[in-house]
Amino acid sequence: MQIDLRGVPGEIPPLTELPLLSRIYAARGVRHAEELERGLKHLLPWQSLKGIDAALALLQQALRERWSILVVGDYDADGATASSVAVLGLRALGAAQVDYLVPSRFDYGYGLTPEIVAVAAERRPQLLVTVDNGISSIDGVAAAKAQGMRVLVTDHHLPGAQLPEADAIVNPNQPGCAFPSKAMAGVGVMFYVLLGLRAQLREQGWFAGRSEPNLAELLDLVALGSVADVVPLDANNRILVHQGLLRIRAGHCRPGIRALLEIAGRNLASVGSTDLGFILGPRLNAAGRLDDMSYGIECLLCDDPQLAREMALELDEKNQERKSIEQGMQREALAQLRALDEQSLPFGLCLYEPDWHQGVIGILASRLKERYHRPTIAFAAAADGTLKGSARSIQGLHVRDALEAVAALHPGLIIKFGGHAMAAGLTLHEGDFDRFSQAFDAQVRRQLTAEDLTGRVLSDGELTHADVCLPVAHALRQAGPWGQGFPEPLFHGVFRLLDQRLLKDKHLKLQLQSECGRVQVDGIAFNVEREQWPNPTRQWARLVYKLEVNEYRGRESVQLLITHLEAC
User: Fold this and answer.
1) Residue 59: closest CA among 195, 187, 155, 217
2) DSSP line for 183-195
């Protein structure tokens, strides 16, 4: 593992009163203190979204004429939160009939397909609103229009060469959109549509004689979907996530979010973005991975705390089941890869077993990508005889564009694909797995070198003994929100190993002393495999870690959360 320092400008602007924090911000591209503002008044204006006027006109007509509105979402956490925001927000703004529909990944696949439109038609909606999907649903939108429905597409995914013939499209990534942030999640796009709708309804006197909703009450959902979807936390997304976290910490969150956090043993008052991504996200996603995401949405929509807790308990159980399935798949994948020597490992990994679970391949691909540091696609068999693939990439390879290049070089090889720079999905004919694996590896080799596949850690440097203290740990916790594109600070250093022991058969607890001998501190490394343990005969180790506040029985202490360790 190679440790590199994050680049910082020669002259660091005084962004905060804490020099360490100013350096950390500068290394993440922040040049002015205004970029760190987290108040709602600093949100980008909704007016610059292309298509927003047509979308708002359509929604106003739907509200005034009491249309039946059906929200069609995606089956991940972004889709679930976006569906919930759409339903709750439109109802609060006065919509007479709002319902939702989420396709099963096993029966219908992703997005507004003609098949899911046929299911939607049974409910006789007058308006379909897509959230977190729709920008690539050419045939699905055409099918809905043929059925006499009006269609509003809200999405954030990258569009293809052709856009659907919807009545309105709101997507910051569509051609010609001047909205400065291209990083919003699907839930953020829907929240912005609601902000615009409320503003125009207010101007028209819609709220005379009725209460005007406080849309900030939806920000806990916006924060959850944004972090769980791993979108870059640019300045605008940081405002959305920070404001959502403030509501959760104050207890002003949906009963389902509160229940999921409590079941996971998390203290609401200290919830951070990491909890959204690694505690809430997986539990919510478990519904869509193993069964039906509708159950996750119902948990988020539920107003009854007791019922929400029962639903949260079931989601937690589903997540435990998902973990068990994933561990079995991971053992099989590692067996495949260990059969290859390091020199023969493909640059782009493609793996498939006939009995792998279609809902879990995305997590498997992510785990293997982290372990082998190369683009990875895991495949599972679908009921229709095709293979569904879930891709995860590393820095330097835009995986959706790589798939597009493969499709251009090998017409007909990929049935369909879509996604982002770091994650994508695709469908193949079952007999084309080997041919695709070779084509994908060849494409990755065109774009990456062997050096690009070397595991690298970007560190914010070494901490002085004075920095390893509770005030600095608290300052780092409060300085976020941290996440994709705005990573939580990582530090490195050499420490003496005073003691090491195993917790729950998989976590390594360490007692450490700094190289200068002036600091003694506890450290913990989660899910450490036996071969990764430091040799007991070695007294020193080089660590990469996060400085965190450990809370135990009402007492706080500094702890190093270790992400990498090696004897030295």
Assistant:
1) 195
2) ---HHHHHHHHHH
